[in-house]
From TrEMBL:
GO terms for biological process: regulation of glutamine family amino acid metabolic process. This is Bifunctional glutamine synthetase adenylyltransferase/adenylyl-removing enzyme. It comes from Saccharopolyspora hordei. Residues 311-456, 836-961 form the PII-uridylyltransferase/Glutamine-synthetase adenylyltransferase domain. Keywords: ATP-binding, Ligase, Magnesium, Multifunctional enzyme, Nucleotide-binding, Nucleotidyltransferase, Transferase. HAMAP family: GlnE. Residues 468-965 are annotated as: Adenylyl transferase. The gene is glnE. It comes from the Bacteria.
Amino acid sequence: MTALSRTPDPDLALHSLDRIQDADEAGWAELAQALADDRELRARLLGVLGSSTAFADHLAAHPEEWQRLRSGVTPPSTLEERTSVLLAAVGADGDGAPGTPGGPVAALRGSEAVSALRRAYRGLLMDVAGQDMAPVVDPSLPSVPYEEVAATLSDAAVAALRAALSVAVAELQQSGVDEVPRLAVIAMGKCGGRELNYVSDVDVVFVADQESDIPTATRLASLVMRVAGSAFFEVDAALRPEGKSGALVRTLDGHLSYYRRWARTWEFQALLKARPVAGDAALGADYLAAVQPLVWTAAEREGFVADVRSMRRRVEDHVPSEISERELKLGRGGLRDVEFAVQLLQMVHGRSDTSLRLTSTLDALRALGEGGYVARSDAADLVDSYRFLRTLEHRLQLRQLRRTHLFPAFDDAEALNVLSRAVGLRASGRSTAAQVLVSEFRRHSNRVRRLHEKLFYRPLLEAVAKVPTAALRLTTSAAVERLAALGYTSPEGALRHIGALTSGVSRRASIQGTLLPMLLDLLANTPDPDGGLLAYRKVSEALAETPWYLRLLRDEGVVAERLAQLLGTSKLVPELLVRAPEVLRLLSDTPALAERDPMEASVSLRSTVARYSEPARAVAAARSLRRHELLRIACGDLLGLVEPTTVFQALSNIWVAVLESALDVSVRDTARTTGEPPARIAVIGMGRLGGAELGYGSDADVMFVCEPVEGSDDAAAVRFATAVVEQVRRLLGAPSQDPPLEVDIDLRPEGRQGPLVRTLDSYLSYYRRWGEVWEAQALLRARHVAGDRELGERFCRAIDPVRYPEGGLDEAKAREIRRIKARVDSERLPRGADPATHTKLGRGGLADVEWTLQLLQLQHAHEHPGLRTTSTLDGLRAATDAGLLDAEDADQLAQAWTLAMRVRNAVMLVRGKPGDQLPRQSRELNAVAAALGYPAEVDTGEVVDDYLRVTRHARAVVERVFYGE
């Protein structure tokens, strides 16, 4: 009673026992005693009877068959033994394989043979089911893994095909054919992969030896299909060339001719599981050897990946909507999702990796995981879910030994309870067994679908599929020619990098071997493929112990594509990347990469650094966060995802945040020896920092202003502030591999000879008595950036009369500004620099535009408040609104200024160091063009012409507005 209660359906098991008793009253006492004494028999027999009405029917018809489930009975365990059982059932004697000369020929024919085979085959299936279901009834018995069950069922099917062939030969000879043609039976699908169900069509292809044999071979193949279909299962030959409309049997040459000329993608996919199983073994081996090379080059076909994906969608679309959620095989999250993903990965990567050339889905999935083509965790999850879904399929088919893949209706509690018990699930807590089963089914289905979409639609597949098979073997001599053809100037050097990345047998080397063919193509489309590959090697070696690095490149195709573009264009990016690898994760998330609010990053940096009290650690943290943000901005900029003005603003904000953090920790540290800080300190941004227009290599022009707190005097305040400023400059100016953090205070009163810090009154006194016109001009960009906000803003209001002089600028001072500008143009331009393409001091460059605007500000800001801005572009718009510039002139100045800023930034990104000159060397100029967003095929002369045209127009405006010509 305990054993009955543990069966999937106790009522069915008990009723079936009653049927057996009725069928064999004489033998019932023996069976009853055996059930009491034999624990394994009890578990096997009741497990079968509580799962399957079909086996109950079989035992009612043949009651003595229960004997084969006894614990002391050893069932057939090999393919040869199972074949012998079925051949013996039809009286077939003889050596060799059925269907070959001298092979066993059945003594029984027609319905007698079919009946005998059906009974023998059903007994073989019951052997498997007894072993499979016994642990459900008696958990102390060892469970049989799904793979073993499927392999045993597949062997039974192969044995059945061989027995059917022996009967077919007998019937063929009976019809007057003396010489049996050479015929090979090739298993396809699940039988080919040794992963068959209890009930399934068996897919086959028939191969004849000679054209002259085809008529007789076709008769023989038809007889095999008829016998097998009547006795065992339907034999489906629809996977043959041209499908059901094609010839049932072809020669090997006929098959090859078709596959080479006409075969579609899905037909090569089907051949993945091809396996000779019956008939002429030598012919079957020849067939397999001939078609295998076609399978493993199919991925090179135009649109191969898209074809496989389209096929999966068509299969899915044919599932009726009302049952799609319950369809175990074809629906979303079903078995086909796993199989299609695995087969696509096999066919793309198996071209170069023979370890992936496996017929079993789970074996191939494990190999993909071991080879690094799939994350180990993803492979393990898919194996687990595939086993679960296949086990459900087996249990459903056991019920009546009919083909079905349909999970019970979610409201059919009785069917769900039986199925849940059949797979070993029981009620848990407040959940019934049916609820537990539905929850598990949905969990596995959702996981399969998620991983299917992750793997099946991985962009890496398309990229790798486009690489010729020969090129996947990266160490061959042919690879040198391919690398040269791709545009690598040093193919031998590239091969050395490839060898270093792929050497050894580690999982990391395997993943690199998968990625590199695709990356080589991507890098070939960048301005510097050789430099990009070298950078990739350095980054990979630096991140060798970072577990997610290669996984991210493999699983997120956009990351690999964007990384290749960055490394083949910029020297700054790889330098930053090895010290800020976490930014790589952002390459797959465009909003996180390019749409972060510039203020958000600076606030985050300040709040993080504020937690440190030791200056060196605080600044190290600030540098780290700045490095992260600098790399994020650079990546977004190079990929064309961020507007230029946003780049300038973001770079300025992050500099300000570092400055603020360094000032804060220096004030706290210095105050430890003096007690309460005797002064408030404000930092005034000047130059491009004041205008929030910094580039990647810009230093920070600043002035420091202090004010004594109550109870302190000016001298004490200045001493304290000076100590703080010296520490800030020392901390930020320390050597670093990152772009420097140079604090430039040369714009302070008296320049390099003046004090580092002054009080507000001291500044005002100096400007009123000694200030020169160039100093008033410099103050046009002054704004509070760090430190005490109230003091900083008060400073800016106090200097307004100096930088926005009442009545404007008299002619003498205007002439002085023009004279200084002319002197700067002639004396400060570096020796050998081309004034036409020098972004800062060249004609129509940054200085031309900025001095022109600043002259207008000095002359007119007292009467036009809109001109009182530190931003160059805002100032040009305000000058237009005030009628001081024509809209066209302002637009030309803005274009030139923006282009010059972008070129300076591009040079820094490309070279990894600052530069003001548009490069002359073609490769660098190509890289700058790419950084500016020009298409890959652009002529570098066009880039130079564009720059010269824009700056020439701006220079004409400068000469007219600034110089009055």
